[in-house]
Known about the structure:
The structure holds two protein chains of two kinds.
Chain A: H1 2-17, H2 24-28, H3 32-43, H4 46-62, H5 73-91, H6 97-100, H7 130-141, H8 145-156, H9 161-168, H10 172-194
Helix pairs in contact in A: 3-4, 3-5, 3-8, 4-5, 5-9, 7-10, 8-10, 9-10
Chain B: H1 5-10, H2 12-17, H3 22-34, H4 36-52, H5 64-75
Helix pairs in contact in B: 3-4
Amino acid sequence: MQGVDSELEAECIRRILAGEKHLFHDLIRPCERSIYILLFSLLKNEAEAEDAAQETAIKVYLNLRHFRGDARFRTWVLSIARNEALGRLRKQGIRREESLDAASDDQTGDYTPAILTSWREVPTEALEQKELGAILRKAIEGLPEIYRNIVLLRDIEEMDIRETAAALGISEGAVKVRLHRARGMLQKELAPQLKAFAPKRKGLFWGRA
Amino acid sequence: MRIDCKHVWQHISAYIEGDVDAVLRAEIDKHLETCEICSAVLDSTRNVVILLADDRVFELPVGFSQRLHERIDRVI
């Protein structure tokens, strides 16, 4: 799948560089959401993330001839987005010590989850209810930044571990440790609330929520 | 070796990722067969991960894509 994608991308890039500039829209479209989510996770501001996403797309276009096929196109695009975000943060005088400091990752992923004795799946159709989405978003927003970034890229945007590590400029090991902690925190926060969204079991009248 | 609940919790995320070796996976599976609490913890964590992956949880700002492509059109 990825092989076919990258061949199509390579062909698309060749044609853009040969003058079919309008094809750039098609090239960048599959990356849009990832660009925005990465920028939002780093800049924490919708308007700023959108502006940076536009700058990123322009920089990708202007630097397209420098793309080397040895990295995935999206990974390359995200490295440009990350540099854009870091440049903006530097200008704002914000130091990024928190996310660069891996020292806290040395501890083991020790946590106590929310203890449940029964659990029923919450089907994704339950997301039709606006409250469920709001509860999930609030829990993500409540995570410390280094964990929120990982959740946004790995679990929301479904990048793989390697791509998440490359996008954030941290090691794969750090991604795994943080992902583990983040999921633990989310389970603890969310599981008791989510039970209310599980489908009701037929014939159960004593209402175990 | 018998592993306890705390040990299972330490590997929940890796287990969901399919990133534990065969020996550890077998130990965890064995534990899950008899431990209702760990089964519920695993299932609820996995369910959270599944829900998060739904595009409705995190939506882009309305009009984001249109504005992006208009900007691109002004440059190319």
